[in-house]
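Pair request: fold both.
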Amino acid sequence: MGTIAKGYVYRSLDSGGNWDIISPGGDWVEHVRDIEAVSKSEVYAATDAGLLKWTGSGDVWTQLKGLPSNNTVSIALDKSVDPAVIYVGTWGAGVFYSRDGGETWLPFSHNIGNKFVYKLAMSSNKPYTLYAGTNFSGIWTRKLSLPGSPWLPLLLLDDQ
């Protein structure tokens, strides 16, 4: 769980019965916007200071380099196939992905452009689909099992 004010991050190993702080606290970041956990000791946090990774050692977080913007907003992990595949939504630079746990990054914004991507979500059923919630541009989807598939707007129809 993360907080916006001063970016505190807590974890619970007993379904919320007890909580431990795993962030340095203070002024390490201003906003923690999204958190994804690979395991009890591997956590990613999208913050206003970039994409950060915690690997279970106290309150030490590492900033992952290579993204064109430090203003990360959302994260989706491909836990169904390979948790080393990370998708990151940014504030005004679009979506990026890494196949190696955040060592290198590639753009993933074909057809969606440099949108403000507020939320990413991954489907749990095949064909795997990545959903991107954007500011002022609706929700976009992209089938991940089809190489080179385009982003498509998700149409929400009225049941009239």
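--- second member of the pair ---
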Amino acid sequence: MKRGHRPYWRSFRTYWYWFAILALLVFQWYAYPPMPGPPPRPTGKDVLIEGVHRVQRVVDGDTLLMVGGARVRLEGVDTPETVREDYPVEPWGPEASAFTKEFVRKAGGQVKLTFGNERLDDYGRYLAFVWDGERMLNEELVRAGLAEARLGWHFSNNLKRRLRIAQEEAQRAERGIWSDAKVGR
């Protein structure tokens, strides 16, 4: 090695190169922070399996809190809002909540849960079909005009058909959200 030459790894260009890479990484970290991961997976007592479970309380028309703390969101339906933070109570929302409470009461506080292909939603709630014998709460809410069928998710075509038929029946009869009546306002 000639005298007066520094090894490559100690040259000015090398320091500048690594400084530029570090600056680029820092910029990227601040400009595009990492996306939050999925919601935490339920563990222990919060894990639900298909079968009969006791309902602790009805949160709103399409959400139940089960004994043990697991939240269940009715799959394939959407009821008007009643408890969403910073959001007004929507027409027919209180009626949907009352309908769900009555369904659970008639079931003796215990319902059977079945699941489609997606087990959890983006908020960590279980997506389920709720049954009392042969009666399905999801379908009955739609038939009563207290929920809209949401058929774009991954669950059985048979259940989608049942919800679609129930919604068509409610629309023809102009029940609930399909009527001109303004309730709760």
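Observation on the second member. The chain has a mean pLDDT of 86.
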